[in-house]
Amino acid sequence: MSDKPMQAELERLYTPPKPVTVAKAIDHIDPHGRRFISLSPFLVIGSAGAGGLDVSPRGGAPGFVRVADDGLSVLMPDRPGNNRLDTLKNVSEGGGGVALMFMIPGVDDIYRVNGAASLVADESLCAEFAEFGRAPRTLLSVEVHEAFLHCPKALMRADLWGESHRVERSTLPSLAEMVSDQLGLAKPSTTHAEQVESLRGSL
């Protein structure tokens, strides 16, 4: 079935984007983007590969992602996680296409980078990204195809950095409790506070 009828319906339902909305997407990271990334301690990365789709969070000290001098690529360390390696597998097994969304606490704007990623396993280069007492095993190099600032409306609606939707962590069971329930396992013997402290030791 052709997508043309649906495209026509979308054009009927939505007004065209403003010219600046289209034109703001550039093929490199400019000084404003470089500054934004230098202040960002958190991003979300989307990838696609033979195993399917994945969206994963990444975090570190502000500026943990390094922008090349020419603004045409970025390097991102891969910190210890759950070892599913969904993003890394997608990059190595698929076409390498990734999408990054950089965020800064307290700022509703988002900086987006789309491009082609490849894995880097150079020990000396990885050592330059040491943080939390250890160097990453690999880096993700992303060739920038498109970079732009994203409208803040979504974060404004969510009041992500505000207090209106904030909840106490005790509102939910611990992560270990929820996973144990999902898998039909025995209740964890450790408290949420103990689990958090254990995680802090493995950052």
Summarize the structure in words.
A 7-stranded antiparallel β-sheet has the order 2-1-5-6-7-4-3. The chain has helices at residues 4-13, 19-23, 31-39, 86-93, 123-127, 153-158, 175-183, 192-200, and strands at 42-49, 52-59, 66-67, 73-77, 97-103, 110-120, 139-150. The chain folds into 2 domains: 4-158, Pnp Oxidase, Chain A; 169-200, no CATH class. Strand 5 (97-103) and strand 6 (110-120) form a beta hairpin. Helix content is 30%, strand content 26%. The protein is globular, with a radius of gyration of 20 Å. It has 8 helices and 7 strands; from the N terminus they run αααββββαββαβααα. With 203 residues, the chain is of the alpha+beta class.
Ordered list of secondary-structure elements with their pairings:
Elements: H1 4-13, H2 19-23, H3 31-39, E1 42-49, E2 52-59, E3 66-67, E4 73-77, H4 86-93, E5 97-103, E6 110-120, H5 123-127, E7 139-150, H6 153-158, H7 175-183, H8 192-200
Antiparallel strand pairs: 1-2, 1-5, 3-4, 4-7, 5-6, 6-7
For the record, what is the CATH homologous superfamily label of the largest domain? Electron Transport, Fmn-binding Protein, Chain A
Helix content: 25-40%
Mean pLDDT over the residues: 94
Number of helices: 8
- Please state roughly what percent of the residues sit in beta strands, choosing from under 5%, 5-15%, 15-25%, 25-35%, 35-45% or over 45%: 25-35%
N- and C-termini, Cα separation: 48 Å
Which regions have little confidence, pLDDT < 50, spanning 5+ residues? none
Radius of gyration: 20 Å
The largest beta-sheet arranges its strands as 2-1-5-6-7-4-3
What is the second-level CATH architecture of the largest domain?
Roll
What is the number of strand segments?
7
What would the principal axes of the Cα set say about the shape?
Answer: globular
H and E string: HHHEEEEHEEHEHHH
CATH class category of the largest domain? Mainly Beta
Count of folded domains: 2
Structural class assignment: alpha+beta
